[in-house]
């Protein structure tokens, strides 16, 4: 009993190390729940984009692959929104394990959890062990973060590297040592290379600390600042000069940059809704207030830079910010870092007014209960079983013949059909696609576009029945001009190669 009392009242370094290791292991284990299910539980279009790229790389070196498999797999090299780091890592692992999509979940989960280690060290540098622990628990067990951080896309790795970079930034701010300047440059450069949208929050943090600690004139003349900036830019510049980044930034901004949304109140209500879903709006608001509670100039400039960077990030990618929830992943460590300032004040008052054992037992019980509840909610979001979808799309692929020329109104722009059905198709617009083009001010003749997209195609596949019913113009055009090749309760295939009459 005495040792337990000492552990709770005066925890030593080994005790905090044990708690840290247990929290990280628990966070990693939770993300392995339902590991082998298909990656359709979160952002399936983005995950399948990476899956198709990884398979294209994998089949390039697979000796037992048939010629038609290599040809179809090669079509999965869909271009580079960013360097295919995760896809390369997964495809090379498949050469040892075989083609299992859950390999990507393990990597993403591992990277996220390692980012949790950096987050704990970062918050402890700013405050103390207790706020660092709670920040880590929020990072590991926020239900949105649980499911999003194990997805097959670059964002979990980007966010983890971002956290490492902010940790190095704080250490550099406190020591001004060259070692931390170089580590900051390396971590930040790696994060930008993985996905360069983190430039807003990372740049905001560095600018805030540099201006807050040094001032503009000293920062401009500081050699370490120039080295940090050079290391930030070098990996992305090398990649760009290699020719692989062509169109990357264009890909990010196409149909995403909508400054007219900035004066639309509905945009901010949608943004608030997303924040509430990701971390809880009240928690995020309390975290942001940490800017004003920070008692040191360095802390305040860091938090202000991070939040200003987040706001710029949201304004630049206004449409994607509320339609593509994975853009919000960096918000989780941002809230954890900012909340630590308020938590530090709480714990100072708590230890002052409740020095005994019982209050700490109550506090620990509340923490464990909260973590258990959040973990259960996160697990709940992984309960849906998508394994049956593989056979469904394989059936459609067999019906089409794998080498047919197909147009489609189908799930995830045809990526499910491409991955499990081994058949690529030219996707037709959904209502959301039409809406975003309307917001962008694009004037499209949809009948002419439909005729161009179906020209020379053998089939038109429909699996999004609701979308099909909501587009009577296209529905009537198909039924009036082309025979139905296959009709089931779940999909339709029109025979474009044998029109009933000329459209």
Overview of this protein structure:
By secondary structure, the protein is mainly α. It is built from 27 helices and 5 strands. It has a 5-stranded mixed beta sheet. The protein is elongated, with a radius of gyration of 25 Å.
Q: Which structural class best describes the helix and strand composition? A: mainly alpha
The largest sheet, given as strand count, sense and whether it forms a barrel, is: 5 strands, mixed
- Assign an overall shape: elongated
How many domains?
Answer: 2
Strand order of the largest sheet: 2-1-3-5-4
Fraction of helical residues: 55-70%
N- to C-terminal distance? 85 Å
Strand content: under 5%
- The total count of helices amounts to 27
Summed over residues and divided by their number, the pLDDT gives a mean of 90
Outline the low-pLDDT stretches.
245-252
Number of E-type strands: 5
- Cα gyration radius (Å): 25 Å
What's the SSE blueprint?
Blueprint: H1 2-9, H2 13-31, H3 44-60, H4 67-74, H5 85-97, H6 102-126, H7 129-141, H8 143-148, H9 155-175, H10 178-194, H11 199-213, H12 216-221, H13 223-241, H14 248-253, H15 265-278, H16 281-288, H17 290-293, H18 297-316, H19 318-323, H20 331-353, H21 357-380, H22 388-400, E1 406-409, H23 415-421, E2 426-427, H24 431-439, H25 446-454, E3 459-462, H26 465-469, H27 472-481, E4 484-487, E5 492-495
Parallel strand pairs: 1-2, 1-3
Antiparallel strand pairs: 3-5, 4-5
Helix pairs in contact: 2-6, 2-7, 3-4, 3-5, 3-23, 5-6, 6-7, 6-9, 6-20, 7-20, 7-21, 9-10, 9-11, 10-13, 11-18, 16-20, 18-20, 22-23
